[in-house]
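Researcher: Last one for today. Full complex below.
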Amino acid sequence: MDSIEVLEDAAAAPRRRERGGREARRNGPVTAPHLSVPYIVRNIPTYDILGEENLLKIEAAADRILAEVGIEFRDDPVALDLWNAAGATVEGLLVRFEPGMLREILKSAPASFTQHARNPAHNVEIGGKSVIFAPAYGSPFVMDLDRGRRYGTIEDFRNFIKLGQSSPWLHHSGGTICEPVDVPVNKRHLEMVYSHLKYSDRGFMGSVTSESRAEESIDMARIVFGRDFVDRNCVILGNVNVNSPLVWDGTMTNALRAYARANQAAVIVPFILGGAMGPVTNAGAIAQALGETMAGCALTQLERKGAPVIFGNFLSSMSLRSGSPTFGTPEPAIGSMVIGQLARRLNLPLRCAGNFTNSKLPDAQAMNEGTMSMLSAVHCGANFILHSAGFLDGLLSMSYEKFVMDADFCGALHSYLAGVVVDDNSLAIDAFLEVGAGKHFLGCDHTMKNYQTAFWDTTINDNEPFEKWEAAGRTDAATRANARWKQMLADYVAPPLDVATDDALVDFMEQKKAAMADAWY
Amino acid sequence: MDSIEVLEDAAAAPRRRERGGREARRNGPVTAPHLSVPYIVRNIPTYDILGEENLLKIEAAADRILAEVGIEFRDDPVALDLWNAAGATVEGLLVRFEPGMLREILKSAPASFTQHARNPAHNVEIGGKSVIFAPAYGSPFVMDLDRGRRYGTIEDFRNFIKLGQSSPWLHHSGGTICEPVDVPVNKRHLEMVYSHLKYSDRGFMGSVTSESRAEESIDMARIVFGRDFVDRNCVILGNVNVNSPLVWDGTMTNALRAYARANQAAVIVPFILGGAMGPVTNAGAIAQALGETMAGCALTQLERKGAPVIFGNFLSSMSLRSGSPTFGTPEPAIGSMVIGQLARRLNLPLRCAGNFTNSKLPDAQAMNEGTMSMLSAVHCGANFILHSAGFLDGLLSMSYEKFVMDADFCGALHSYLAGVVVDDNSLAIDAFLEVGAGKHFLGCDHTMKNYQTAFWDTTINDNEPFEKWEAAGRTDAATRANARWKQMLADYVAPPLDVATDDALVDFMEQKKAAMADAWY
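Model: Here's the assembly. Have a good evening.
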């Protein structure tokens, strides 16, 4: 048909917006470039599933847990002093909180803040209607179809930063994308922060495995952004976990306080596998998460009033047959909607986990569980979605193939979150009057005017007719993803970093390393 | 750990509810049997993304399309007469409708009705908060991992009925699950309806490919349910498609009227690939769908006031590079939310399409696109979700492996749609008081009381640790699904059907067949 040919010709050389055009050409096909943005501003409401009465019950349960059971703060006497001064009841390591106390403290935390990137075009607003996709975090292993599962190395770590930087659908470079196991444990944070700053120009996350590593992560950011700027602006995030149930370890609270002290944003995340670290029933696990997270968020405000902080969520379930943790299952997916409602009632930015799965391969299971989990994160109103790309094997492995599949799905979500625009152009009355009953819309004015920005277009999923797909080699999505990440790495071009800054970062890193013997655990 | 062992032992022999228990033993592992129900009553709200103002704009656009462009009704003079008598403007084949006219006519259609199954335990309520999962519909090809893609046969057709009947997570036997291409075209409806009635005891759909085939489908239902019962109750559905844009073909309207005349429910479904059969912009395609569907639904009421009818939705997009239809993409997924809102404003039951994909394999793409599409269907409030299981290859192939994967996901959605229950038990305050900070919940009273009904448990997805998965053969989900459908077919037991009824059905079928020469197109 003539009109299809017209569309094809035009689509073969789509006009690209200035921003992103150069990257697009460098890194192979970028379809739907009009959707590429530094971060998404959602144009659909959040999916609120509980009414006021039930939310109040959960909040009341959290208040009872905080007041009657309390939270232990281990190995951090300063935290205990801060709680004592704030009026909490401290007995030994156990801290108990009068109902309402933490909510009052949390009023000083900002509802939204900017994380600055070293390329200001990649600054992200965290809070409100913003949605930011960041890679998965924390796997000891990496996987690809050629070499299978193996421990991650600093080369893998850099590769994932490069893949993220090359994707127009991620907005943030993440943190411990995989553990670089070939680097001594006590020096990893230096290499990781340096790699983020060197190979990406987006926002990133620093170390939380000790107070000094957190501080050194922030120090490296100060080299790039300047000390005064960092004191006034958020340039680095630190992701700290509750030792659920109801325990904050000193390693985490010391790191949390280091970030807050520097006016940088801690992300406060419980880790609740229902039935193990919390009740098997969703409402109880949610109440617990609320209590644990409020306590962590409030501690940032006691350390430095007004410091940015992010309310984190990591609900999960477990297999009742094996006791294994499960990921991407329905209960955490629906439970996250409630966490979102609760975070908004606290007026805090929300972090959720994205593309969760327990699959060991980038297969149907991986994307079934991952897609359900990722949609839950965008529906619940998460502003910062960690684990958006690469997660396999119950967070034990980063997968190269899954990374690019997930990044492609993040692209699709750019269109999804744009919602349904209703205006004269989108209602297209003139097109109906032009085309009439029983004719096609392929060549009509309205189609020609709108088709380039009409639909998301994937680079991984195959939409060809069966015969064309067969002739092209009958590939599955994983095979196409394998080719895609290799091409992206081959095409990667590092964002410019001025030599003096680079040198200063390397000097800092080398000095710190020279002062430490290698530690491997 | 002792407590995990306790859980494992108990979970190995879960108590099963009486209902479903026998089937469960017959058909292999049914995990989470407490979730199995004849149909789901949703316990979460619909996901409403547009406000009143924008909905009114879309409704006004639909009204303008109906009034100013109109809809052609081809090859059905009776339909034109009905429209004329109802006050529409009929000029040749073109029918135009004053704003509000169709809404007024639609007031006689029931907001909800029961489709009776031959086993009353499998009756489904269609409307309100009900959610019913039915298999995919209409593929000429079938696929499995062993034999690849081939034309469907009556044996495949029966196999899919058996797989559906064996799944505790589907609620309806569907209709043309695949085309039985080895049966002459003019006799297929007889074999298909007979197979549904013989191998399943759930609700099903009849033929719509001609008025007489529709009537014969209904006649066969009358043999099972009795003529009077059928005149008063819905026992069969007929799925009729608009020839979008804005054309109703006589084949469809004659079938539609046959179902309505018999007080059976027609499902009225536009087929809009944005940019081809409708505008490339979502709002316009939605307005068109609303207009086309209202017209079809209203025609059922002109044929028989009060007949049950279902508002159908089938939005899709197309690849701008190849012109191919695409499935499981973000624009139809988000657009369906709006269709749901519009259907509820008409107070009509809603049908959506479920597990859409263009993938040619049961791979990551299939479940990425399928999961997004399926979640869209459950979020938008669809009561009857066709294409819930088996869909591959852009509706050209039914896949055995995808069928059981999708059915498993339907199971997960039973837990998802149960939402978050908030009550004293689920809030688990006593458990927190019992366990305290820093201990685990594995063996506590609350866990022991609730764990068997706490979480969905899959039969396809793998939740074992990597090493166990590796030792078990490193299977992907498709390989496990391949073993699963074979086991399900091997274990299948037909539901009882009394011999006299069976004989009467066979007699009817043989008589009709004997009166026709084979037609192959």
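Chain A has two domains: 1-30+430-457, 89-98+101-418. Residues 363 and 478 of chain A are 7 Å apart (CA to CA).
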